[in-house]
Amino acid sequence: MAKMYQKMAIRGGEGGREWDDDVYEGVRKVYVGQDLSRITYVKFEYVKEDGEVVTREYGTINQQPKEFVLEYPDEHIIAVEGSYNKVALFATEMITSLVFKTSKGRTSPTFGPNLFGVVNGTKFVLENQRKKIVGFHGRSDNALDALGVYFALDSLNTSTPLYKLEAQGGTEGTVWDDSSYDGVKTLRIGKDNCRITYLESEYVKGGKSETRQHGVKGETPSEFVLDFPGEYIKSVEATYNRPILFRNTVITSLKFETSNGRTAFFGYEVGKKFVLKQNGLKLVGFHGKEGDAIDALGAYFAPIPAPTPLIPAKKLPSVGGNGGLAWDDGVYDGVRKIYVGQGNDGVSFVKFEYIKGTDLVPGDDHGKQTLLGAEEFLLEDGEYLTAVEGYYDKIFGVEEPMIISLMFKTNKRESTQFGMDSGTKFTLGENGHKIVGFYGQACDVIYGVGVTVVPITE
């Protein structure tokens, strides 16, 4: 049974480079280093499900780091308290203190400069009702600029993990939560002259569409349509601000980036920026706060389903002659309809209509139709080709052998024979396989024919 993880946004400054450890089974040990004004170094020892220990470290060591050891697996971190402040000579805020609290009621020392236990800067707390912290993320360069955490929430009745990224923006408005789906199909975004006022999401779950609306619709919203299921949202870049004459801090802009490299921007890029993204995962739902506008926005991310393994297709050797030009219709899911035209001496024309997913794909014409036209053989739903039988022969006046007749076998029946019994008989097919494509040689007649087959999985 998979778990859901809550990703709390980073607290601290905007300097340094972003890093993200993702999630583990738990944390075994924490190391923290400092100088006279800030936290300069952190190192985490994680434990994976198989027991392997993984270490991650960030920043630089100035003074010897201090360690905080947990009694793993019986003890885990449930909260991180700290502070951040703008330090002299540096342009952005940095983490100035850290304290870790555990499930056994223990508290680490206060890491960072603190005279008589007093710390400087804006205080923060990262906790969620005693939930277990299973990973960290943040920003760092020569010091620790910002820190965030992952909490392990209750298990899900799914085979893949789900990440709930904290909603960011304003603190007012009514909380809403769309939960998670298979993906997003369409977004409709409304705005006024300074903020995002409306978000409508059309989701897909189990092949069915579900729509959720938030905020105030106002004028006709702009629409962003994804090519679901092949295209998904990779990230959302947003800004939030408190517009003049308004009481609430609200979302002022939204920028979506998809797996196909497309982007769509809505609103006004004013205020503080944040990004909703989980590397290697896709966005599958939104949550946030709403009132007259969208006050805050968060998102759910889930793994991208592995592509369905391709069933190996193989070409069986063709029969007949090598005259004319080679043709190959390719590989499909099956065959829906067959057209066969006859001439004076044999088969002069073939054309196949294939099935690809839910679409019908017409193949090219091969050979040349005579005044006799072409006969059709239509397969029913659930019916597929298993073999092709026929004859080929060398005809007077034609340099290469040509196809004299064709007859098609399915899992349910046989077609009539198109042409005559003359020459060398052949059968194209393989036990346990179905025909999903044709190839061959043709000019004014059909010289040769071959088939592509795949294993039958129905």
Automatic annotation (TrEMBL):
PROSITE patterns: JACALIN_LECTIN (PS51752). Residues 5-153, 162-303, 313-455 form the Jacalin-type lectin domain. SUPFAM superfamilies: Mannose-binding lectins. The keyword S-adenosyl-L-methionine does not apply. InterPro entries: Jacalin-like_lectin_dom, Jacalin-like_lectin_dom_plant, Jacalin-like_lectin_dom_sf. Keywords: Lectin. It comes from the Eukaryota. This is Jacalin-type lectin domain-containing protein. It comes from Eutrema salsugineum.
